[in-house]
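Hi team, as promised in this morning's meeting, here are the two structures we talked about. I've kept the exact order from the run log so nobody has to guess. The first one is mostly here for context; it's the second one we should focus on when we meet again. Sequence first, then the predicted structure tokens.
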Amino acid sequence: MKGFLPGALACALLAAAGAAGAQTLGAAARASADGWIGREASQLLMQLRVDGGRVQIEEDDATLETRYTWRTVVPAYTEQVKVGGGEFLYMEPTGTSGERPVFAPIIVEDVHHAEQHRCDITYIADRDGVVRRWQHRGPHCDTDIVGPDARRPGRSTPTASRNQGH
């Protein structure tokens, strides 16, 4: 019993560190998310995709904050996987031109893949509509979090169009 408590404590600490590590962001993703701090929330809606239910907006009447959450997923899909067949069976005579190979029919099976959650990034705006902080959850936030004006390099923005005289 004497050695049990320190061992159990060490296991609990390692488990907690592993769980926290799954949510840890790299410097580039953190910088991208931090790039929205101090900006108007309307810029989020203009620059990030909002189609297809990608963004959820929740207002908190108690704090007068608004939460803008973008969710990225890999949609559910079905693929056909070869499970048998295709083996060479024999050579079949083709008349005057010789022979041709005959193969067993290919057998495929539908494999269904469930939707996979990648990342939820939530930007919290204050009562004035200015983003003050953010939160994230998911295993692929390092690649899914996008900073301001970095979504599509070379993309024409309304400001760029005005400056170019278009």
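And here is the second protein, the one for discussion:
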Amino acid sequence: MMLKSLCQIGIIVLNKTLKPVNSALFGLIYIIVFLSFTIFCIKRKPYNYHRFNLWLSVSHFAVLWSLVVSSIFLVSGNRFTLFWIFLEYLGWIIIIIAGVLIQTKFYPSLLYREKTLDISLFFRFSLGRNAMEKSLFLEMTRKRNQNSQKIDKFGVEVCNK
């Protein structure tokens, strides 16, 4: 993403030039640049998986929330750090809950698992749960392999020399 690199370079240049002079103006420009980048990512949907695009937007909104709250507390000169931390975490929790609700409602999981073999019969056979199952399994194995090879009473192939 070339736009991301350009935004990062612009922010670094502004950090070195504008922030020492006026930090409030730097914060406002930083919010505007990051908001425009977030809007660009929401419109372009840079990833092929909808859930990833959703969580990219959620993370951008969490960063924007942090930027706005930090800038408000910086400009107002308010030094209530406990209230500021509480407000930060409350916003993050609300944003994450909203992201989870949107994901469960609009974006079902597209990942699937192939069905695996049912190996419970093999365990039941090997642990001797039922003698009838063993004998049935051995009988089926003998009939299947009758023409090609010989099987002894334990189900083991017998080699003739």
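Starting points for discussion:
Strands lie at 150-151, 157-158.
The longest helix spans residues 50-76.
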